[in-house]
Structures are given as C-alpha cells and as structure tokens.
C-alpha cells in the first residue's frame, strides 16, 4: 500500500518539479530576452551614435579642408601677381608661367584638378583633371565668396569655385578646384560593417524648399541621390532632425517606411547625416542570442529532470522510508501505550490508573504551556492541585475520556475559547510518544533494578538484595521477638560436574537446584544465590532452631533426588551451615559469616549434612583466618619443609620412588599438614610461590643426594590446580631443572583428574610439553573424578594413582574391589602403571598383588618421613642395588 503511495508521490514530484523547471526556464528566457533586447538596443544606440559622430567628424574635416585650401589659393600673392602680369601685354607670357608654376605646386599638394579663369571667365590654365561628369551634385552652403558642390564621379568629389582678387580687392579671375574625397567614399562603404541592413545617408536641404532634401544613399552608382520628403506620414525622418541641427538616436521609420534605429547628426555646411540599421536585424541578433540561451536552458532542464529522478527522488524516497519507520515506531509506541494501560490496570484500580496517567500527563502539558488537564471518570471530574493551580486563562486543556479502563486516550485542545474543543491529533501523538518513552524508560529501569538485585542465571535475589532482605527480616523478627535462620548451602562436588559435563549443564543444574530450594521453603522466606554453587536460604520468623534443622533436612532430601537434564541423570548433594538469629549473630554480615563456617564444618563432616554454627566453629574460622595471615610469611621465615613418603614396588617391596609432601612448621603450632593450608594457599594465590619452592627444593635435594652418591629414585611432586594452569609453569620448571642441573626423568608430576577436564586443548598442550621435556606424569586420586580411562588416552600419562578411598574398604567392600580391579586392568591395557595409595594393611596389599598392581604407597610400609629418614631408606636401597631398576626403564 505504502509502496504504491510512494510511487504515486514519485510521479507527482517528478511532474511538479518538471513543470516548475519549465516555468522557471520560460520565465528566465523571457527575462533574459527582455534584458538582452534592451542591452542590444542600448549597445546598438550607443554604437550607432559613436560611429556616426566619428563619421561626421571625418566628413566635416575633409570638406572644410577642401574649402579652406581653395580659399587659401585665392589669396596667394604669387598667383594673383602672375595673373596680373598675364593681363599686361609685355609680360603675359611671364604671367602664364607664374600661374602655371603656382597651380602646379598647389595641385601636387591637395587637389585632383585646378582651373584658372580670367575675368571674362575664359579658361587661362588648367592642371590635373576636373570632372566632366558630375553626378548627384549637391551644393553646399559654405558661406560667402565660395561656391562648393559635392558630387559623385566614381568617388566623392568636392568642387570649389572662388573669385581671384588683386591686392586692391579688384576681381582678376576665378579658380576652380576639385578634391577627391576617398575617405568619404569609404565611410559609405564601411557603413555596412555595422550590420547587413545598416546604411549611411548624407543629405542636404533643397534650397528654397523646406519639405525636401537631397540625400546620398549608399548605392551611388545607381543614381542614389534621392530627393526625399523630410516628413513622411506626419513623422519626421531621422535625417530631418539632423538637418534641423539635432543630434541623437531615433527608433522610427525611415524614408522606406521601414522600422529602423537611426543615429542622426548635423554636418558642416547645412548637411545632415544618418547612420541607421533595420530594427529587424537587431531583433534577429537578440533572437539568435536568446536561441542559444534557450538551448542551454533546455539542456539544464534535462539535467534538472535527470537529477530529480536519479538523485532527488531516491532522497525523497529515503525520507519517505524514514517517515514510514517513524510511523511504525509511533505505532509501536501506541502499542506501548496500550501496554501501559493494561500494565497499570493490572495492579491498580481504574481510578488509580487514570490518576497515574494524568500525573504523567501534567508535566507534559506544563511543558507545552498548557494549563488545564481534566480527567473524566464515570462522570466524575478529577481535579488535581496542579490543575487548580494552572487553571488561569484556560489557554488549553486536555481531556482523557473514560471508555473501558480509561478507554481510548483522547486529548482535546482548546485555545482561547474553553468551550470549543479542537481535537488535535499531534497532541495525542505527542502524548502517546512520551508515554511510550516513559514506559520504555520504566521497563529499562525495572530491568536495571532487576539486574542489580537478582542473579542473572537463576533469577534469585543476589547477594546485595539478600543482605537487604536479611536486614528487613531482622527488623521484623526483632519486633516480633522471633528467631530467624540463615542456611548456607554449598553443593558438593559441583565443580566436578561443571568441569566434566560443561558449563551449560552446570548452569542448568544450578537453575534446577534453585527451583528445588524454592519448593522447600515458604513464599515469605528468601532463597538467594550467593555465587557459584552457594545458595542462601533465609527462614523468617521461626519458632525455634529445630525448624531450621527440619528445613535443612528437607533441602538435603530434595537435593538427593536425581536431576534429569538433557537426558542426563545427575546427582548432587549439599552441605548446609546454619546460623540462627539472635544467638549466632544480630546482623546480616555475622549471620552469613557464621553460616559459612558451619557449612565448612558440614563439608568436613563428610558432606551431605547440615551443621549448626557453634562457638568452636567460630574459633576454628578465626584460626583459619589467622593461619591465612601467617602463611604469607611462611616462605620468607623458612617455615616450610618437605617430607617424603616411599612408593614401593609390588610384590617385592623394592623402593620405586618417593613422593614429596609439604609440611609447615608453624612457630606457635606444631607441624601443620597440607590439607590445612593448601586450600588457603590456593585461595590467596600463595600456591604459586610455594609450589615453585617445592619444585626447587626437590630438585636441590635430588642434586644433593646424587652428589652424596645416594641411589635417587623418581621424586613425585604434587601440583595444585592453580599451579597447573599457571602460564609460567613450564618455563619455571625448565629454569629450575637447568639451574639445579637435575634431569627431568627424576621428577614425576602428580595432577588430579579434575584438572584434566577444563580447557582440554590447553591441558593436552601443557602435558605434551612436560612429557617432551622428559617429566613423568601421574594422575592422583584417580577414581574420584568423572574421567573415563578411554578419555585419558588423549593425554601423555604414565601412571595412575588409585585414590585411597577405594583402597580403604577393599577388604570389606566388593564394589571397591571391582572398581580397583577394573582400573588396574584398563590402565594396563593403556600401558600405564598403577600405584595404589593408602595401603595400611596386608590384606589390601594382597588383593592388589593378585590384581597385578605395579606399586603401592601407604602407612603399611611407611608414613611420610623427614629427609634424614628417607635417606636411610635410600641407603638401604643401595644395598639392594642389584635389584634396582634404572629410572626410565619403566614407561
Ligand atoms: N599442591 C600440593 N599439594 C600437596 C603438597 N604436599 C601434599 N599435598 C597434598 O596435600 C594433601 C595431604 O597430604 P598429606 O597430609 O601429606 O597426606 C599424604 C599422605 O600422608 C597421605 N597418606 C599416605 N599413605 C596413607 C595411608 O596409608 N593412610 C592415610 N590415611 N593417609 C595416607 O596421603 C597424602 C598423599 O596423598 P596423594 O598426594 O594423593 O598421594 C594431599 O592431597 C597431597 O596431595 C604439595 O607440595 N603441593
């Protein structure tokens, strides 16, 4: 629909633009034409005037020159004396010679012919050529004593005739001169240069006849001296003005009754001159110009249309598209408006909904300087203080009419006359738009608050909101003198599931756990996610602490049921720590801390149980904190040391290797085992320097033993997860090996199964590099993780250490026996050796012997011992040197 409207628009725009362009071009053409016409006339006028002025100057100069020269001859003494001599008998000959000499000289200077006549008008002497034929002769009014005629004989010629007088003024003869006027002839010829129809006229009045004149026209040879009426059809001809002594230009008709532009000017001796051109020729000239201009304008027109259709129309189309999306947005906003209404109506009464909308509208109207807002609600009018305040002047008003649940929003707008309502669509749009924006803003605000206070994964309150809730419950329960409980729930072995099955599964499990927890408590209780696999349950207003125990057990039972996620059956337990208000704390922070400590206690207690917070726990938590502080200085105070536990061959009990086990000689406590501080070291990052210290100490010890000539078996070093992930691990081990001069084959690195699962590519790369260096790699605590043996195939692993939890009940638990037997068999099939950990009794050993387990480690042979004690064992081993295998002969 909109497309066809756009196409229609396009056609209209193109038509209107083209017509506008054409009109514009026509108008421009006419304007240019009239301007040019005037310009051309002005140019022609001034051109004709100037040309005529110059021409007239020339003509005058020539004719006057001729007349003046002739007059000068008449006064020549030598001539007049010679003429007088001619009259005396005795010197007539001498006189004729003198006359001849005289006119000969004059002739060469000015004239084409001279004749001297005596007093009786008899020719005495003639020089040069005087014209026999005088065509188109016009007598000029040159003044007294001289008769001048201008005539045509292949050229313009001026003939002057003047009386010769002696020194006493007595007439003695007459001289006639003729002077050719080539310049005047040229002037006639060149008049055509101005234009094809240009013409030059030189006219003299007819003596005794004021109505006529004799005029030289351009085509002289055709007898073009015309006697012309000076006024024709009551209109004076241009030359009439010239003969009247006037100079100027006239747009008038000439003697042929053709429209001309004529410049006129008087010429000396009563002559008048006109230089003219036909007006048609001028018009033609400007028409030519205008044609050229129109040609270019039409070109511009085509360009213009092309630009409109190729550039402007797409631009307009773009604008229309923008308008379209704007309208769509508006539409959305209107939908938004509907949403607001239903949203508000959901929680509130109709009246409140309307009030709220009005509340929102008022500032909008204020902004638009509108004064009054009214709401019609079931015939009631709702007046707000703002309304009263702004009632003045009744500039305008808005009415929200009530249909269903406030109905359609209609805004009426009054200007000047409150009684006249003018519905103003724009205003409705504006309000709809603003409401839409407001709604979006509210939604965003809601989302931000939600994000700030809730856990994104489970939607449960996060730790910040949790604290707030606890504080609220504390206020409430203090007032009611009730107890409340904070349950700190940590999922057991969640990390293993997360690592083995992936984070996506881990996330889904956490969501499912969140739902289970919610199902175990009342609506008014709070279930929150503290982070990771830790959840907090706040039980409001409990009667006694036993209630907390009951809920905890309910939670444990609920968690014990399998979870079905993406066709996987998952099992997870939880450890719960309980802190009860007011006995275990009176604020959120203490209750959370103490429930956390209780949860640790539950973990220690074998997991999948709940524990109440006790003062002893508080004490141990405090101790743990202090221990953490002390550990920082353990390295620099040289408080760390290594114990070594032998690993024996099976079944012959030869020394196969030793495992280095860390101990901390605390200044105030006795020897501390690593299970008390390794986690602390991991959490604080101290494990990196501590781990490096262990590797270096082991290497130095090996070197020392070698230097002392001891038999040195392979020494196993435990790597923690953080250490294994450390990017500098390989670099550090290489450096230590090269610095101590110990060969890599003397070192075995023990890592746990769980370390293999996360970021497999990186793990494979690290293990391959360690293997390439010649280090031996063992998997510690095997069986507690989720890795299958076939999964281990991709890693360069040499030894599996079966976790002692499987060994512990070997004698009594058939399942454990089956598992251990299977592990040994499969490890062998993958060409790995097996070490059984935690061998304490002979029966355990015997079973393992039957399963062809390669090595064993445990209190049965030796607990971890000091350096000097292990050295004794090394020495004994030397004693059985013939039985000792060289390191590296095994895989
Ligand atoms: N990252 C590092 N971890 C280390 C380092 N040194 C030790 N550890 C780890 O600490 C855990 C506890 O170690 P420890 O207290 O030394 O216990 C070891 C043995 O004493 C104990 N063991 C050995 N035989 C038996 C037995 O027959 N019964 C029994 N109850 N316990 C026995 O087992 C621990 C050795 O286990 P494992 O390492 O799995 O071989 C322990 O997990 C160490 O890994 C260190 O330098 N860095």
Q: Which terms would index this structure?
A:
single chain, about 900 residues, alpha+beta, Beta-Lactamase, Alpha-Beta Plaits, TIM Barrel, 8-stranded mixed barrel, 6-stranded antiparallel β-sheet, 35 strands, about 25% strand, rod-shaped, disordered C terminus, binds ligand LFPHGCPZ
Question: What would you say this structure looks like, in words?
Answer:
An 8-stranded mixed β-barrel has the order 27-28-30-31-32-33-34-35, surrounded by 4 helices. It has a 6-stranded antiparallel β-sheet with strand order 2-1-6-5-4-3. It is rod-shaped, with a radius of gyration of 65 Å. The protein has 891 residues and is of the alpha+beta class. Helix 1 (2-74) runs antiparallel to helix 6 (279-347), helix 6 (279-347) packs across helix 9 and helix 11 packs antiparallel against helix 12 (503-520). The longest helix is centred in the N-terminal third of the chain and has 73 residues, at 2-74. The model is unreliable at 339-351, 360-432 and 881-891 (pLDDT under 50). The protein is 50% helix and 23% strand. Among the domains are: 346-451, Beta-Lactamase, CATH 3.30.450.40; 472-613, Alpha-Beta Plaits (2-Layer Sandwich), CATH 3.30.70.270; 626-797 and 861-884, TIM Barrel (Alpha-Beta Barrel), CATH 3.20.20.450. The chain has 26 helices and 35 strands. A hairpin with a 5-residue loop joins strand 27 and strand 28 (655-665). The protein binds ligand LFPHGCPZ. Ligand LFPHGCPZ binds at residues 645, 659, 661-662, 673-675, 678, 694, 718, 720, 780-781, 801, 804, 837-840, 857-859, 864.
